[in-house]
Amino acid sequence: MASYDYDLFTIGAGSGGVRGSRIAASLGARVAVAEDSELGGTCVNLGCIPKKLLVYASHFAEEREDAIAGFGWSVAEPEFDWATLIANKDKEIKRLNGVYDRMLVDAGVTIVPGRARLVDAHTVEVAGRRITAENILIAVGGWPFVPDFPGRELAITSNEVFHLDALPERVLVVGGGYIAVEFAGILHGLGSRVTQIYRRELFLRGFDDSVREALATEMKRKDIDLRFSLEATSIEKTEGGLRVALSDGSDIEVDQVLYATGRVPKTDDLGLEAAGVEVGPGGAIPVDAVSRTNVPNIFAIGDCTDRVNLTPVALHEGTCVAHTLFGDGERAPDHEYVASAVFSQPPIGSVGLTEAKARDRFGDDLAVYESRFRALKHTLTGSAEQTLMKLLVDRKSDAVVGLHMLGPDAGEITQGFAVAIKAGVTKSQFDQTIGIHPTAAEEFVTMREPTR
Ligand code: NDP
User: Fold this and answer.
1) Three-state DSSP class for 301?
2) Domain shared by 211 and 356, yes or no
């Protein structure tokens, strides 16, 4: 039997790679992980965590307005310092990098700094050193994608926006996915003048249509200049900033252009060919139900497999691979009823099918319960912001097959309901549940009559 340096070598110490490595080590495997950047990957360094911190920071202006308008406060004109926010955020990220380091070391995982390349199915090369392993886990994540057009080098992506020297006065956000709507809200809340453009009629393709429309209404209400069916065709430097030509023949001058037009698997120059690992269209690594590639001892998880590109899903996939390899048998990750939130302003929470998908699946058996209302808080602030809640029910089985929300705390609220939906909750069980009053969430358990 061949003897290898390690039982498992993981490439990439992001969410999925760290989790897979730690669990594997806890199951008795000898594990090493290579990382060429900070520990924690996109989520910790350039994604979920710093993004959410900026979301918190950006809420203040509106809270202040509400407090003055409705709650009797008088507050002097506030000042915002971007450099302080970024420095505080960086300090927290540094702390988290340390936490990841300790977690790996305490679990007995060897950290190998540097970029790893596969040499063959059992060998990787990192910083000129060859290391062998019985199994390899690829968890290299993704990277922002910017389409090709004149001036693309003048645009920034989510990689750069977290480290700008100053808050841009005028920003153009291009794209209509998670990152685009989240940053449109963050930058607007912090004081930038924000224009967001999206190439089709309505952004957040894949989310429930009611939620997409309602978010567009609320963002426009906040004075975000949201424009659909529009693309940027070129960017050039001017004396005053950046001039962006748009597909309708107009142009716009801004200080920064943020491209949030998707992410692609970071699988180039990884030596996949040398190891015989197949790569799919767009660079994603195809895997089977247990995240195994076409090479039996090589597994891949997270964004580089382009399945459900969310941190908690990568964590789950990493856990499953560790159990498949070193636990008590094959464990396939479960991608059904994965809840998610978009930290737009207001935020979105979503789990299960959209109305359109549920209609396709259940036809006339679909019952839609939808409610729109002004949150209690806004009866005093005067804000016209609407909260939207929607339940989708298969009448035949009475199962709740989709739950969607736009409104304050949507992520927090949806997480709780996601447990019930994952467990197969019925509409009658929703009806039997007594609400917590006064909350917005109670609306989900008091929806009596279908809207359609
Ligand atoms: P998404 O894939 O969510 O959205 C990409 C957007 O860019 C879409 O609106 C797409 O339009 C548009 N687009 C793609 N190509 C072009 C092009 N050539 N020109 C103009 N527009 C284009 O990507 P994001 O970058 O927003 O996010 C990346 C990933 O990160 C997502 O997969 C998401 O899962 C994850 N993420 C999750 C978050 C969360 O859970 N809260 C937060 C942030 C990111 P179209 O609809 O027409 O294809």
Assistant:
1) coil
2) no
Residue 226's alpha-carbon distances to 147, 223, 240, 257, in angstroms, are 21, 8, 22, 14
CA distances in angstroms from 250 to 206, 223, 259, listed in the order given: 29, 20, 19
Which of 302, 326, 350 terminates a domain? The answer is 326
Using the Cα atoms of residue 66, residue 71, residue 76 and residue 78 in order, give the sign of their dihedral. Answer: negative
Distance CA 369, CA 392 (A): 6
Give CA–CA dist 237/253, Å, rounded: 9
Domain count, the chain: 3
Q: Residues 359-370: what's their mean pLDDT?
A: 98
Catalytic (active site) residue 437: yes
User: Is the overall model pTM greater than 0.85, yes or no?
Assistant: yes
Distance CA 62, CA 221 (A): 12
pLDDT in tens, 62-105: 999 999 999 999 999 999 999 999 999 999 999 999 999 999 99
What residue numbers bound the domain in which 257 lies?
152-261
Pocket of ligand 1 (CB under 6 A): 147, 175-180, 182, 198-200, 203, 205, 231, 260-263, 309-310, 340-343
Return the beta strands (E) in 121-189 as ranges.
123-126, 129-138, 142-144, 170-174
